[in-house]
Amino acid sequence: MYRLVTVLLVALAVLSGVLSLTGALFFTPLELAAGFAVAVGVSMGSSWLVSRIFRVTSHPESAMITGLLLFFIFRPSIEPADLAGTAVAAIVATASKYLLAVRRRHIFNPAAIGAVVVGVTGLGVSWWWVASGAMLPAVVLAGFLVLYRTRRVALAGVFIAVSAVLLSVRLLTGGGAVADLATVFTSYPVLFFAVFMLTEPLTLPPKRWQQLAEAAIVGVLFSVPFSIGPVFSTPELALVVGNLLAFVAGQRRGIRLVFESRSRLTPTVVELRFRPEKPVVFTAGQYLELSLPHPSADRRGARRMFSMSSVPAAETLTIAYREHDPGSSFKKALSRLEPGDRVTATGVWGDFRLPSDSGVPLGLIAAGIGITPFISQLEDAAAGKARDIVLVYAVPDSTEIAYLDQLERLGVRVLLAAPEPPDVLPLGWTYLGPGRLTGDRLAAAIPDLDERRIFISGPPGLVGALRDVAGRRAKTDAFSGY
């Protein structure tokens, strides 16, 4: 995602230069070049410097994204005062990642808090010049790519709907005509804000309904003018307020884990076991974000999301992952953990949870490493009332059936999709045959599919394909790999 967002923002910046040359933008090519150089240069330079001060590994691509966002927020100019305001915003944005952070996780969107500080101190004014008719088609295309990849369409949709309605009412009650409603998207940064600012994952609350509620609240603050003393409403202030609400909604207590052991579940799947220094509060099916700073971290950084395979009441916490060759620097760091090593997690998130009503029949569909959240849920369900559950488990090879002994012990009805059946098929298991797990095969395997609450966990492609068959009510958990 860092790479995709970086490429798209750079493409928008290049387009702005082309539009400037044709006279479609108000700013000159020199002003755009100066604004770009200061925003991106100061952001990356200050990130390198601050990382040395705090003795942490810098993340150049994250710093570049922050700089690019500030480039589109502040006025491109060759005036020293304007450039100084942009530079201060970049420095504040970088510092906020370390000073306004809890559990190695920044509270506020860095670009937004940088713009707020500059605005409140009077050092500059945000322009959000990216909101223009000339830039709109490219922003729409970039937005589609980002939202499709992050699966944040609903989040952005709520914000856009709320903002568009309120801004339209303002225009109409202010004497505008219906034909002028295009101003909502050409004079206000509704789309750019929703795609590149609001959806930043590190500043979102943990649950889907909380995210949608935050989007609605931010949409209201974004669209309705207000002032508190010398502080006036701006898009960046609306987002900072939303970030604060997200922080309050999340788990704020630090999560510290002591590594105990690792075990190989299949030729490519490894499970890690940790002992929490204090109990970790979560619901079966949720995930945590593990933070593991390490030397020479690749562009994907030092944090990863892992579904927990242990039950909430367990004294130890387990996660599992699939090894790839070549692996990321993060996975290599995981493989070097020794018993007694301490790691931290920034929090617990997720709505991939079974319904509380034990009478609801369930269909669980797992592909590969997507089995991990289901193990936690099945173990947790086994400790309570009996449930009507059928598990469809697709694996690339019969030797890649993770948690085989556990599933057999739990007595779960399993429908196995694999190139060939295992040497011994456990009691209660059905072999579905070779071939990709498709919607037609799924419907044939579970005749009462429409009567069950469906949960799908696995690679994004398979999750998307099966969700179309399982219905829009199906809950999903996509494992992209890292």
UniProtKB/TrEMBL annotation:
Cofactor annotation: FAD
Gene3D superfamilies named in the record: Nucleotide-binding domain of ferredoxin-NADP reductase (FNR) module, Translation factors
Spans through the membrane: 30-50, 107-123, 129-148, 153-172, 178-199, 211-231
Keywords per UniProt: Membrane, Transmembrane, Transmembrane helix
PROSITE patterns hit by this protein: FAD_FR
Source organism superkingdom: Bacteria
Domain annotation FAD-binding FR-type: ranges: 252-355
PANTHER family for this protein: NADH OXIDOREDUCTASE HCR, PROTEIN RFBI
Name of the protein: Oxidoreductase
Species this protein is from: Mycetocola manganoxydans
